[in-house]
Amino acid sequence: MTTSTPRRALSVGDKVTIAPGLFPASVSTTQVFEITKVPTRANEVNYVASPVDGGRGVRAQAFAFIPFEGEAEAPEVAGRREFAVPLTMGTVVTVTHPQFNPDDLYVVLAAARDGGNRLTRLGGENDRYWKSIPTGLCTVVDPRGLSHR
Fold it and tell me: How many CB atoms within 10 Å of residue 105?
């Protein structure tokens, strides 16, 4: 049985910022975006957000956006870039994303070219691995606290 996470309620016109570590360094986490399109069809999950000060917009699921409270005209912070550095090979992590089981453990295989991480399930899963999981979705687990099941 799978459990689904409830969608965060976003609507057209909401002001948001990007959650750190989910996008490449070219997308600023301090830039303010406005939601311009919400999912309307049954299988549609991505929201479309456009920067309030102009520029390229982003498409992402609701968990990638943080509600913004305050003034949207802050040009002094718009140029700053915050991003998470890829994890080192062999690090044990959990992944917080609706498509991943929060109880499963994953191992970092390598850093992906886009700044993400290549992960595989601890113990293997028929040579399957995920190519680019953002560091912001990964929580490092202390391997000394793990026990054999």
Answer: 16
